[in-house]
Protein backbone atom coordinates (compact mmCIF):
# COMPACT_ATOMS: atom_id res chain seq x y z
CA UNK A 1 0.00 0.00 0.00
CA UNK A 2 1.51 3.34 -0.94
CA UNK A 3 1.32 6.57 1.01
CA UNK A 4 -1.74 7.82 -0.94
CA UNK A 5 -3.85 4.75 -0.27
CA UNK A 6 -2.88 4.85 3.36
CA UNK A 7 -3.92 8.52 3.64
CA UNK A 8 -7.23 8.03 1.86
CA UNK A 9 -8.00 5.03 4.04
CA UNK A 10 -7.27 7.09 7.17
CA UNK A 11 -9.42 9.95 5.87
CA UNK A 12 -12.32 7.58 5.07
CA UNK A 13 -12.10 6.15 8.59
CA UNK A 14 -12.36 9.69 9.99
CA UNK A 15 -15.46 10.36 7.89
CA UNK A 16 -17.02 7.06 8.96
CA UNK A 17 -16.40 8.00 12.58
CA UNK A 18 -19.16 10.61 12.36
CA UNK A 19 -21.69 7.78 12.03
CA UNK A 20 -23.95 9.82 9.76
CA UNK A 21 -24.20 12.66 12.27
CA UNK A 22 -23.37 16.19 11.07
CA UNK A 23 -24.97 18.43 13.68
CA UNK A 24 -22.97 19.66 16.67
CA UNK A 25 -25.27 21.20 19.25
CA UNK A 26 -24.52 21.97 22.91
CA UNK A 27 -21.25 20.04 22.78
CA UNK A 28 -22.73 16.89 21.26
CA UNK A 29 -22.63 15.35 17.82
CA UNK A 30 -26.18 14.59 16.67
CA UNK A 31 -28.13 13.41 13.71
CA UNK A 32 -30.26 15.91 11.81
CA UNK A 33 -34.03 15.72 11.94
CA UNK A 34 -35.07 16.92 8.47
CA UNK A 35 -35.74 13.40 7.25
CA UNK A 36 -33.46 14.07 4.25
CA UNK A 37 -29.96 12.73 3.81
CA UNK A 38 -27.01 14.20 1.94
CA UNK A 39 -23.77 12.59 0.79
CA UNK A 40 -20.19 13.74 1.31
CA UNK A 41 -18.51 12.89 -1.99
CA UNK A 42 -14.79 12.55 -2.71
CA UNK A 43 -14.46 14.74 -5.83
CA UNK A 44 -11.26 12.98 -6.84
CA UNK A 45 -13.10 9.70 -7.35
CA UNK A 46 -16.76 10.69 -7.50
CA UNK A 47 -17.46 8.13 -4.76
CA UNK A 48 -19.65 8.77 -1.74
CA UNK A 49 -17.59 8.93 1.41
CA UNK A 50 -20.47 9.00 3.88
CA UNK A 51 -24.03 10.22 4.17
CA UNK A 52 -25.69 12.24 6.89
CA UNK A 53 -29.10 13.56 7.81
CA UNK A 54 -29.50 17.25 6.97
CA UNK A 55 -30.48 19.81 9.60
CA UNK A 56 -34.08 20.97 9.56
CA UNK A 57 -35.69 23.91 11.30
CA UNK A 58 -35.88 22.00 14.62
CA UNK A 59 -32.10 21.48 14.62
CA UNK A 60 -31.46 25.15 13.92
CA UNK A 61 -33.86 26.03 16.75
CA UNK A 62 -32.03 23.68 19.13
CA UNK A 63 -28.65 25.13 18.17
CA UNK A 64 -29.85 28.73 18.64
CA UNK A 65 -31.31 27.77 22.03
CA UNK A 66 -27.98 26.17 23.06
CA UNK A 67 -26.09 29.29 21.93
CA UNK A 68 -28.51 31.57 23.80
CA UNK A 69 -28.15 29.51 26.97
CA UNK A 70 -24.36 29.61 26.79
CA UNK A 71 -24.27 33.36 26.08
CA UNK A 72 -24.52 34.95 29.57
CA UNK A 73 -21.63 32.99 31.07
CA UNK A 74 -19.43 33.25 27.99
CA UNK A 75 -20.09 36.96 27.52
CA UNK A 76 -19.52 37.44 31.25
CA UNK A 77 -16.16 35.63 31.30
CA UNK A 78 -13.13 37.87 31.62
CA UNK A 79 -11.06 38.51 28.50
CA UNK A 80 -8.28 36.54 30.20
CA UNK A 81 -10.55 33.52 30.70
CA UNK A 82 -11.67 33.61 27.06
CA UNK A 83 -8.06 34.00 25.99
CA UNK A 84 -7.00 30.94 28.00
CA UNK A 85 -9.82 28.92 26.43
CA UNK A 86 -8.76 30.00 22.94
CA UNK A 87 -5.12 29.09 23.61
CA UNK A 88 -6.40 25.65 24.64
CA UNK A 89 -8.47 25.55 21.43
CA UNK A 90 -5.34 26.26 19.36
CA UNK A 91 -3.52 23.42 21.11
CA UNK A 92 -6.46 21.05 20.51
CA UNK A 93 -6.45 21.95 16.81
CA UNK A 94 -2.68 21.47 16.56
CA UNK A 95 -3.05 18.04 18.13
CA UNK A 96 -5.51 17.13 15.35
CA UNK A 97 -3.56 18.82 12.54
CA UNK A 98 -2.93 15.66 10.56
CA UNK A 99 -6.57 14.49 10.80
CA UNK A 100 -7.91 17.91 9.86
CA UNK A 101 -5.71 17.96 6.75
CA UNK A 102 -6.85 14.46 5.73
CA UNK A 103 -10.54 15.26 6.17
CA UNK A 104 -10.20 18.57 4.31
CA UNK A 105 -8.44 16.90 1.39
CA UNK A 106 -11.02 14.13 1.28
CA UNK A 107 -14.15 16.27 1.21
CA UNK A 108 -12.74 19.07 -1.02
CA UNK A 109 -10.26 17.17 -3.22
CA UNK A 110 -7.62 19.61 -2.01
CA UNK A 111 -3.99 18.58 -2.55
CA UNK A 112 -2.67 17.29 0.76
CA UNK A 113 0.25 19.72 0.63
CA UNK A 114 -2.24 22.62 0.51
CA UNK A 115 -4.30 21.31 3.45
CA UNK A 116 -1.16 20.56 5.44
CA UNK A 117 0.82 23.71 4.67
CA UNK A 118 -1.94 26.31 4.30
CA UNK A 119 -5.42 25.44 5.59
CA UNK A 120 -4.50 23.81 8.89
CA UNK A 121 -1.59 26.03 10.02
CA UNK A 122 -3.58 29.10 8.93
CA UNK A 123 -6.45 27.97 11.15
CA UNK A 124 -4.20 27.33 14.15
CA UNK A 125 -2.50 30.70 13.68
CA UNK A 126 -5.87 32.45 13.53
CA UNK A 127 -6.84 30.77 16.78
CA UNK A 128 -3.64 31.88 18.50
CA UNK A 129 -4.12 35.39 17.12
CA UNK A 130 -7.66 35.68 18.51
CA UNK A 131 -6.54 34.20 21.84
CA UNK A 132 -4.29 37.26 22.14
CA UNK A 133 -6.63 39.76 20.50
CA UNK A 134 -9.45 38.88 22.89
CA UNK A 135 -7.46 40.63 25.63
CA UNK A 136 -7.06 43.79 23.55
CA UNK A 137 -10.73 44.65 23.11
CA UNK A 138 -11.32 48.14 24.35
CA UNK A 139 -13.74 51.03 24.18
CA UNK A 140 -12.97 54.73 24.24
CA UNK A 141 -11.31 55.94 27.44
CA UNK A 142 -13.50 57.93 29.80
CA UNK A 143 -13.54 61.74 29.43
CA UNK A 144 -15.68 64.76 30.30
CA UNK A 145 -16.77 65.77 26.80
CA UNK A 146 -19.72 67.91 27.91
CA UNK A 147 -17.92 69.32 30.93
CA UNK A 148 -20.68 68.08 33.27
CA UNK A 149 -20.66 64.41 32.42
CA UNK A 150 -18.24 61.54 32.24
CA UNK A 151 -18.64 59.49 29.07
CA UNK A 152 -17.12 56.19 28.13
CA UNK A 153 -17.74 53.48 25.62
CA UNK A 154 -18.37 49.85 26.42
CA UNK A 155 -17.63 47.34 23.69
CA UNK A 156 -20.10 44.49 24.06
CA UNK A 157 -20.80 41.24 22.25
CA UNK A 158 -23.71 41.30 19.80
CA UNK A 159 -25.31 38.07 21.08
CA UNK A 160 -25.96 34.85 19.19
CA UNK A 161 -24.28 34.99 15.77
CA UNK A 162 -25.58 32.93 12.84
CA UNK A 163 -22.84 32.26 10.27
CA UNK A 164 -22.99 30.65 6.86
CA UNK A 165 -19.88 29.39 5.08
CA UNK A 166 -18.92 28.11 1.59
CA UNK A 167 -17.20 24.88 0.56
CA UNK A 168 -13.92 26.16 -0.84
CA UNK A 169 -11.98 26.45 2.45
CA UNK A 170 -14.36 24.84 4.96
CA UNK A 171 -11.92 24.70 7.87
CA UNK A 172 -10.55 28.20 7.41
CA UNK A 173 -14.02 29.62 6.87
CA UNK A 174 -15.16 28.00 10.13
CA UNK A 175 -12.17 29.64 11.83
CA UNK A 176 -12.74 33.04 10.25
CA UNK A 177 -16.39 33.02 11.31
CA UNK A 178 -16.15 31.45 14.76
CA UNK A 179 -12.96 32.91 16.23
CA UNK A 180 -13.60 36.68 16.22
CA UNK A 181 -17.20 36.04 17.27
CA UNK A 182 -16.34 33.98 20.35
CA UNK A 183 -13.20 35.96 21.19
CA UNK A 184 -15.49 38.98 21.59
CA UNK A 185 -17.89 37.08 23.89
CA UNK A 186 -20.60 36.04 21.42
CA UNK A 187 -21.82 32.50 20.92
CA UNK A 188 -22.36 31.09 17.45
CA UNK A 189 -24.29 28.74 15.20
CA UNK A 190 -22.28 27.96 12.06
CA UNK A 191 -23.83 26.45 8.94
CA UNK A 192 -21.12 24.97 6.73
CA UNK A 193 -21.79 24.14 3.09
CA UNK A 194 -23.64 20.86 2.85
CA UNK A 195 -20.92 19.39 0.59
CA UNK A 196 -18.19 19.84 3.21
CA UNK A 197 -19.28 19.45 6.85
CA UNK A 198 -16.46 17.27 8.20
CA UNK A 199 -13.79 19.76 9.27
CA UNK A 200 -16.31 22.27 10.68
CA UNK A 201 -17.53 19.46 12.95
CA UNK A 202 -13.96 18.54 13.93
CA UNK A 203 -13.28 22.21 14.63
CA UNK A 204 -16.29 22.38 16.98
CA UNK A 205 -15.26 19.14 18.67
CA UNK A 206 -11.79 20.59 19.31
CA UNK A 207 -13.44 23.60 20.97
CA UNK A 208 -15.27 21.28 23.37
CA UNK A 209 -12.14 19.22 24.05
CA UNK A 210 -10.34 22.45 24.93
CA UNK A 211 -12.94 23.23 27.58
CA UNK A 212 -14.92 25.87 25.68
CA UNK A 213 -18.37 25.54 27.26
CA UNK A 214 -21.11 23.60 25.50
CA UNK A 215 -23.28 25.80 23.32
CA UNK A 216 -20.60 28.43 22.59
CA UNK A 217 -19.81 26.81 19.21
CA UNK A 218 -22.62 24.95 17.39
CA UNK A 219 -22.71 23.56 13.87
CA UNK A 220 -25.84 22.82 11.84
CA UNK A 221 -25.37 21.21 8.45
CA UNK A 222 -28.30 21.71 6.14
CA UNK A 223 -29.13 23.20 2.79
CA UNK A 224 -29.10 26.96 2.19
CA UNK A 225 -32.77 27.54 1.41
CA UNK A 226 -33.77 25.35 4.35
CA UNK A 227 -31.43 25.51 7.38
CA UNK A 228 -29.60 28.60 6.06
CA UNK A 229 -32.64 30.81 5.62
CA UNK A 230 -34.13 29.59 8.91
CA UNK A 231 -30.89 30.57 10.67
CA UNK A 232 -30.73 34.03 9.09
CA UNK A 233 -34.36 34.77 9.90
CA UNK A 234 -34.31 33.26 13.39
CA UNK A 235 -35.49 35.78 15.99
CA UNK A 236 -32.89 34.48 18.46
CA UNK A 237 -30.02 35.35 16.12
CA UNK A 238 -28.69 38.90 16.47
CA UNK A 239 -26.24 38.94 13.59
CA UNK A 240 -25.67 37.17 10.28
CA UNK A 241 -22.18 36.68 8.94
CA UNK A 242 -22.20 35.18 5.47
CA UNK A 243 -19.41 34.08 3.14
CA UNK A 244 -20.44 32.84 -0.26
CA UNK A 245 -21.56 33.99 -3.68
CA UNK A 246 -22.90 37.46 -4.36
CA UNK A 247 -26.20 36.02 -5.62
CA UNK A 248 -26.89 34.15 -2.36
CA UNK A 249 -25.49 37.09 -0.35
CA UNK A 250 -28.25 39.28 -1.83
CA UNK A 251 -30.91 36.85 -0.63
CA UNK A 252 -29.30 36.63 2.82
CA UNK A 253 -29.15 40.43 2.99
CA UNK A 254 -32.88 40.68 2.22
CA UNK A 255 -33.75 38.24 5.00
CA UNK A 256 -31.39 39.83 7.54
CA UNK A 257 -32.65 43.31 6.72
CA UNK A 258 -36.22 42.19 7.32
CA UNK A 259 -35.20 41.20 10.84
CA UNK A 260 -33.10 44.40 11.25
CA UNK A 261 -30.05 42.29 11.95
CA UNK A 262 -26.43 43.22 11.89
CA UNK A 263 -24.92 41.90 8.67
CA UNK A 264 -21.46 40.97 7.46
CA UNK A 265 -21.08 39.82 3.84
CA UNK A 266 -17.96 38.27 2.29
CA UNK A 267 -18.97 37.64 -1.31
CA UNK A 268 -17.54 36.78 -4.68
CA UNK A 269 -14.45 38.13 -6.40
CA UNK A 270 -12.86 38.54 -9.82
CA UNK A 271 -9.38 39.70 -8.88
CA UNK A 272 -7.37 41.70 -11.43
CA UNK A 273 -3.63 41.10 -11.77
CA UNK A 274 -2.03 44.19 -13.34
CA UNK A 275 1.43 43.77 -14.86
CA UNK A 276 3.18 47.04 -15.78
CA UNK A 277 5.93 47.07 -18.40
CA UNK A 278 8.75 47.41 -15.84
CA UNK A 279 7.67 44.32 -13.88
CA UNK A 280 9.86 41.29 -13.23
CA UNK A 281 8.39 38.97 -15.86
CA UNK A 282 9.49 35.74 -14.16
CA UNK A 283 7.97 36.85 -10.86
CA UNK A 284 4.74 37.99 -12.50
CA UNK A 285 4.30 34.81 -14.54
CA UNK A 286 4.93 32.54 -11.52
CA UNK A 287 2.67 34.74 -9.39
CA UNK A 288 -0.13 34.57 -11.96
CA UNK A 289 0.02 30.79 -12.24
CA UNK A 290 0.10 30.21 -8.47
CA UNK A 291 -2.49 32.93 -7.90
CA UNK A 292 -4.86 31.55 -10.54
CA UNK A 293 -4.55 27.87 -9.68
CA UNK A 294 -4.49 27.87 -5.88
CA UNK A 295 -7.24 25.57 -4.61
CA UNK A 296 -7.99 24.77 -8.27
CA UNK A 297 -9.02 28.38 -8.76
CA UNK A 298 -11.82 28.04 -6.20
CA UNK A 299 -10.58 30.99 -4.21
CA UNK A 300 -12.46 34.26 -3.95
CA UNK A 301 -9.18 36.21 -4.25
CA UNK A 302 -7.69 34.08 -7.06
CA UNK A 303 -6.01 35.92 -9.92
CA UNK A 304 -8.58 35.69 -12.70
CA UNK A 305 -7.92 38.64 -15.03
CA UNK A 306 -4.30 39.46 -15.89
CA UNK A 307 -3.87 42.83 -17.64
CA UNK A 308 -0.39 43.03 -19.09
CA UNK A 309 1.17 46.17 -20.55
CA UNK A 310 1.77 45.70 -24.26
CA UNK A 311 5.63 45.39 -24.26
CA UNK A 312 5.45 42.36 -21.91
CA UNK A 313 2.22 40.85 -23.18
CA UNK A 314 3.46 38.17 -25.62
CA UNK A 315 6.25 37.02 -23.33
CA UNK A 316 3.85 36.84 -20.37
CA UNK A 317 1.30 34.72 -22.28
CA UNK A 318 4.06 32.35 -23.43
CA UNK A 319 5.53 32.08 -19.92
CA UNK A 320 2.14 31.34 -18.33
CA UNK A 321 1.32 28.73 -20.98
CA UNK A 322 4.66 27.01 -20.33
CA UNK A 323 4.16 27.06 -16.57
CA UNK A 324 0.57 25.75 -16.82
CA UNK A 325 2.00 22.72 -18.63
CA UNK A 326 4.24 21.92 -15.64
CA UNK A 327 1.39 21.78 -13.07
CA UNK A 328 0.72 18.21 -11.94
CA UNK A 329 -2.94 17.17 -11.71
CA UNK A 330 -3.39 14.14 -9.53
CA UNK A 331 -4.64 12.35 -6.48
CA UNK A 332 -5.09 14.86 -3.64
CA UNK A 333 -3.40 12.38 -1.27
CA UNK A 334 -0.24 12.26 -3.36
CA UNK A 335 2.19 14.78 -1.82
CA UNK A 336 3.43 15.60 -5.34
CA UNK A 337 0.01 16.73 -6.62
CA UNK A 338 -0.25 20.43 -7.43
CA UNK A 339 -3.82 20.61 -8.68
CA UNK A 340 -6.74 18.59 -7.35
CA UNK A 341 -10.24 18.25 -8.79
CA UNK A 342 -12.94 20.88 -8.49
CA UNK A 343 -15.34 20.49 -5.59
CA UNK A 344 -17.88 18.50 -7.64
CA UNK A 345 -18.75 17.35 -11.12
CA UNK A 346 -21.45 20.03 -11.21
CA UNK A 347 -18.83 22.72 -10.55
CA UNK A 348 -16.55 21.19 -13.19
CA UNK A 349 -19.41 21.29 -15.72
CA UNK A 350 -20.14 24.90 -14.77
CA UNK A 351 -16.51 25.89 -15.40
CA UNK A 352 -16.47 23.93 -18.68
CA UNK A 353 -19.63 25.82 -19.71
CA UNK A 354 -17.92 29.20 -19.26
CA UNK A 355 -14.96 28.06 -21.36
CA UNK A 356 -17.17 26.52 -24.06
CA UNK A 357 -19.09 29.77 -24.47
CA UNK A 358 -15.85 31.77 -24.48
CA UNK A 359 -14.62 29.82 -27.54
CA UNK A 360 -17.15 31.82 -29.58
CA UNK A 361 -15.38 35.12 -28.92
CA UNK A 362 -11.93 34.39 -27.43
CA UNK A 363 -8.91 32.11 -27.86
CA UNK A 364 -8.30 29.16 -25.57
CA UNK A 365 -4.49 29.00 -25.57
CA UNK A 366 -4.07 26.00 -23.27
CA UNK A 367 -6.41 23.68 -21.37
CA UNK A 368 -10.13 24.03 -21.91
CA UNK A 369 -10.79 20.35 -21.28
CA UNK A 370 -11.22 17.76 -18.57
CA UNK A 371 -8.74 14.88 -18.45
CA UNK A 372 -10.01 11.30 -18.72
CA UNK A 373 -11.02 9.63 -15.49
CA UNK A 374 -13.68 9.69 -12.82
CA UNK A 375 -12.65 12.74 -10.80
CA UNK A 376 -13.97 16.29 -11.26
CA UNK A 377 -10.68 17.51 -12.77
CA UNK A 378 -10.24 20.32 -15.27
CA UNK A 379 -7.01 21.36 -16.95
CA UNK A 380 -5.44 24.77 -16.23
CA UNK A 381 -6.93 27.00 -18.88
CA UNK A 382 -5.45 30.15 -20.39
CA UNK A 383 -7.68 32.44 -22.44
CA UNK A 384 -6.75 35.49 -24.50
CA UNK A 385 -8.54 37.83 -26.88
CA UNK A 386 -11.72 38.19 -24.80
CA UNK A 387 -13.58 41.51 -24.90
CA UNK A 388 -13.59 43.34 -21.55
CA UNK A 389 -17.39 43.15 -21.34
CA UNK A 390 -17.56 39.41 -22.08
CA UNK A 391 -18.78 36.82 -19.60
CA UNK A 392 -15.37 35.18 -19.15
CA UNK A 393 -13.88 38.53 -18.06
CA UNK A 394 -16.79 39.72 -15.94
CA UNK A 395 -18.24 36.64 -14.19
CA UNK A 396 -16.79 34.70 -11.27
CA UNK A 397 -15.84 31.30 -12.71
CA UNK A 398 -14.33 29.63 -9.61
CA UNK A 399 -12.11 27.25 -11.53
CA UNK A 400 -8.55 27.01 -12.93
CA UNK A 401 -9.11 29.60 -15.65
CA UNK A 402 -6.99 32.70 -16.26
CA UNK A 403 -7.82 35.37 -18.83
CA UNK A 404 -4.90 37.50 -20.06
CA UNK A 405 -5.52 40.80 -21.87
CA UNK A 406 -3.15 43.58 -23.02
CA UNK A 407 -3.27 47.29 -22.12
CA UNK A 408 -1.32 50.36 -23.27
CA UNK A 409 -1.21 53.32 -20.86
CA UNK A 410 -1.26 53.04 -17.05
CA UNK A 411 -4.65 54.79 -16.96
CA UNK A 412 -6.13 52.09 -19.15
CA UNK A 413 -4.69 49.25 -17.05
CA UNK A 414 -6.13 50.67 -13.85
CA UNK A 415 -9.48 51.42 -15.47
CA UNK A 416 -9.80 47.83 -16.72
CA UNK A 417 -8.79 46.49 -13.30
CA UNK A 418 -11.74 48.33 -11.75
CA UNK A 419 -14.17 47.38 -14.50
CA UNK A 420 -16.18 44.54 -12.90
CA UNK A 421 -18.85 44.64 -10.19
CA UNK A 422 -16.43 42.95 -7.76
CA UNK A 423 -13.81 44.47 -5.46
CA UNK A 424 -12.33 41.80 -3.21
CA UNK A 425 -8.63 41.61 -4.07
CA UNK A 426 -6.12 42.72 -6.71
CA UNK A 427 -2.42 42.87 -7.38
CA UNK A 428 -0.04 45.25 -9.14
CA UNK A 429 3.30 44.15 -10.56
CA UNK A 430 5.93 46.86 -11.00
CA UNK A 431 9.34 47.96 -9.74
CA UNK A 432 8.35 51.63 -9.90
CA UNK A 433 7.34 52.88 -6.46
CA UNK A 434 5.12 55.67 -7.89
CA UNK A 435 3.19 53.27 -10.10
CA UNK A 436 2.82 50.88 -7.19
CA UNK A 437 1.44 53.59 -4.91
CA UNK A 438 -0.94 54.83 -7.57
CA UNK A 439 -2.26 51.31 -8.18
CA UNK A 440 -2.82 50.63 -4.47
CA UNK A 441 -4.68 53.95 -4.20
CA UNK A 442 -6.85 53.64 -7.29
CA UNK A 443 -7.79 49.97 -7.41
CA UNK A 444 -11.07 49.51 -5.57
CA UNK A 445 -10.64 46.33 -3.57
CA UNK A 446 -10.39 45.12 0.01
CA UNK A 447 -6.77 44.10 -0.52
CA UNK A 448 -4.12 45.14 -3.06
CA UNK A 449 -0.88 43.18 -3.18
CA UNK A 450 2.25 44.59 -4.80
CA UNK A 451 4.47 42.00 -6.51
CA UNK A 452 2.60 39.10 -4.96
CA UNK A 453 -0.94 37.69 -5.02
CA UNK A 454 -2.74 35.51 -2.41
CA UNK A 455 -0.85 35.65 0.94
CA UNK A 456 -3.11 36.36 3.90
CA UNK A 457 -2.14 36.89 7.51
CA UNK A 458 -4.13 36.75 10.73
CA UNK A 459 -3.16 40.32 11.73
CA UNK A 460 -4.58 41.94 8.58
CA UNK A 461 -8.24 42.35 7.56
CA UNK A 462 -9.85 40.41 4.73
CA UNK A 463 -13.03 41.67 3.12
CA UNK A 464 -14.48 43.25 0.05
CA UNK A 465 -15.61 46.44 -1.61
CA UNK A 466 -18.40 46.92 -4.19
CA UNK A 467 -20.38 43.70 -4.88
CA UNK A 468 -17.79 41.68 -2.95
CA UNK A 469 -19.56 42.72 0.26
CA UNK A 470 -18.68 44.62 3.41
CA UNK A 471 -17.16 43.92 6.78
CA UNK A 472 -13.90 42.23 7.68
CA UNK A 473 -12.72 38.75 8.60
CA UNK A 474 -9.50 38.18 10.57
CA UNK A 475 -7.47 40.88 12.37
CA UNK A 476 -8.66 43.21 15.12
CA UNK A 477 -10.87 44.93 12.49
CA UNK A 478 -13.23 41.93 12.61
CA UNK A 479 -14.21 42.99 16.14
CA UNK A 480 -16.05 45.91 14.55
CA UNK A 481 -18.48 43.33 13.11
CA UNK A 482 -18.81 41.18 16.21
CA UNK A 483 -19.16 43.86 18.88
CA UNK A 484 -21.45 46.79 19.44
CA UNK A 485 -20.41 49.95 21.21
CA UNK A 486 -22.52 51.43 23.95
CA UNK A 487 -22.18 54.99 25.17
CA UNK A 488 -22.39 55.27 28.96
CA UNK A 489 -22.84 58.81 30.37
CA UNK A 490 -22.68 59.84 34.03
CA UNK A 491 -23.92 63.17 35.35
CA UNK A 492 -21.19 64.74 37.49
CA UNK A 493 -23.12 67.76 38.86
CA UNK A 494 -25.56 66.08 41.24
CA UNK A 495 -27.88 69.02 40.45
CA UNK A 496 -31.63 68.29 40.29
CA UNK A 497 -32.43 71.03 37.77
CA UNK A 498 -30.02 70.87 34.87
CA UNK A 499 -29.36 73.81 32.57
CA UNK A 500 -30.69 72.01 29.53
CA UNK A 501 -34.11 71.45 31.23
CA UNK A 502 -34.94 75.03 30.18
CA UNK A 503 -35.95 73.58 26.81
CA UNK A 504 -38.90 71.93 28.60
CA UNK A 505 -39.60 74.02 31.69
CA UNK A 506 -39.31 77.47 30.12
CA UNK A 507 -37.81 79.94 32.58
CA UNK A 508 -38.75 78.05 35.73
P1 LIG B 1 -22.92 29.78 -2.19
O1 LIG B 1 -23.27 31.21 -2.11
O2 LIG B 1 -23.62 28.91 -3.15
O3 LIG B 1 -23.14 29.09 -0.77
C1 LIG B 1 -22.52 29.59 0.39
C2 LIG B 1 -23.30 29.10 1.60
O4 LIG B 1 -24.61 29.68 1.56
C3 LIG B 1 -23.51 27.60 1.69
O5 LIG B 1 -23.40 27.19 3.04
C4 LIG B 1 -24.94 27.42 1.20
O6 LIG B 1 -25.58 26.27 1.72
C5 LIG B 1 -25.58 28.68 1.75
N1 LIG B 1 -26.81 29.09 1.06
C6 LIG B 1 -27.20 28.85 -0.21
N2 LIG B 1 -28.41 29.40 -0.44
C7 LIG B 1 -28.79 30.01 0.71
C8 LIG B 1 -29.93 30.77 1.09
N3 LIG B 1 -30.94 30.98 0.25
N4 LIG B 1 -29.98 31.25 2.35
C9 LIG B 1 -28.98 31.05 3.22
N5 LIG B 1 -27.86 30.35 2.90
C10 LIG B 1 -27.77 29.85 1.66
O7 LIG B 1 -21.35 29.75 -2.37
P2 LIG B 1 -20.42 28.49 -2.58
O8 LIG B 1 -20.66 27.98 -3.96
O9 LIG B 1 -20.53 27.55 -1.42
O10 LIG B 1 -18.95 29.16 -2.47
C11 LIG B 1 -18.38 29.85 -3.50
C12 LIG B 1 -18.62 31.34 -3.35
O11 LIG B 1 -18.14 31.81 -2.09
C13 LIG B 1 -17.89 32.16 -4.39
O12 LIG B 1 -18.72 33.15 -4.89
C14 LIG B 1 -16.73 32.76 -3.60
O13 LIG B 1 -16.20 33.94 -4.14
C15 LIG B 1 -17.37 33.00 -2.28
N6 LIG B 1 -16.34 33.14 -1.23
C16 LIG B 1 -16.07 34.40 -0.76
C17 LIG B 1 -15.09 34.57 0.21
C18 LIG B 1 -14.77 35.94 0.74
O14 LIG B 1 -14.04 36.02 1.72
N7 LIG B 1 -15.29 37.00 0.17
C19 LIG B 1 -14.40 33.47 0.69
C20 LIG B 1 -14.70 32.20 0.19
C21 LIG B 1 -15.68 32.06 -0.79
How would you explain this protein's 3D organization?
The chain is of the alpha/beta class and 508 residues long. It has helices at 3-16, 57-76, 79-95, 97-108, 112-133, 170-183, 198-209, 224-233, 246-258, 281-293, 310-326, 345-358, 391-394, 410-417, 433-442, 479-482, 502-505, and strands at 23-25, 28-30, 37-42, 47-53, 149-157, 160-164, 187-191, 217-219, 239-243, 262-266, 271-275, 303-309, 363-366, 381-384, 401-407, 422-423, 425-429, 447-450, 465-466, 469-470, 483-491. It folds into 2 domains: 3-266 and 475-486, Aldehyde Dehydrogenase, Chain A, domain 1; 271-450, Aldehyde Dehydrogenase, Chain A, domain 2 (3-Layer(aba) Sandwich). The protein has 17 helices and 21 strands. α9 (246-258) links the parallel β9 and β10 (262-266). α1 (3-16) packs across α4, α3 crosses α7 and α4 (97-108) runs antiparallel to α7 (198-209). The chain binds nicotinamide-adenine-dinucleotide.
Structural topology:
Blueprint: H1 3-16, E1 23-25, E2 28-30, E3 37-42, E4 47-53, H2 57-76, H3 79-95, H4 97-108, H5 112-133, E5 149-157, E6 160-164, H6 170-183, E7 187-191, H7 198-209, E8 217-219, H8 224-233, E9 239-243, H9 246-258, E10 262-266, E11 271-275, H10 281-293, E12 303-309, H11 310-326, H12 345-358, E13 363-366, E14 381-384, H13 391-394, E15 401-407, H14 410-417, E16 422-423, E17 425-429, H15 433-442, E18 447-450, E19 465-466, E20 469-470, H16 479-482, E21 483-491, H17 502-505
Parallel strand pairs: 6-7, 6-9, 7-8, 9-10, 11-12, 11-17, 12-15, 14-15, 17-18
Antiparallel strand pairs: 1-2, 3-4, 5-21, 10-20, 13-14, 16-19
Helix pairs in contact: 1-4, 2-8, 3-5, 3-7, 4-5, 4-7, 5-6, 10-11
This protein binds nicotinamide-adenine-dinucleotide (NAD).
